[in-house]
Amino acid sequence: MASARQIAANRKNAQRSTGPISHAGKTRAAKNALQHGLARADLPFEHEIEGFARLLSKEENQDDPTFACVEAAHAQLTLLQVRKVKAAIFDRFFESDRTLDDSIRLNEELRKNERYEKRAFSRRKRAMQHL
Hints:
Blueprint: H1 4-16, H2 23-30, H3 46-59, H4 67-95, H5 100-129
Helix pairs in contact: 3-4, 4-5
């Protein structure tokens, strides 16, 4: 149970951490998760997903793609996109001076990218089990 003093401190801190206030700050913050396109809610390659899902469903002798086919196709195309981002990260590193700061930045970017890669692998594996 929080004491009255802790509650007051929490309220005081909460007033300072409300996010950006200016319009420019809000616009910039809204794009934080979209730098590489891996966190997009919409499907940037919807037609490719549909085509790939149809190929998967034909392999499984089905007329229309099932949810599992669509999910597997989306995960596979996401993996391709993750690998493109990874290649760009390495390209930037090899074009840099390769200092310690560059190496630290490389590791940090790869660590952030790994989250999306693991998620796509997991989604693909789960979908393929249902085919």
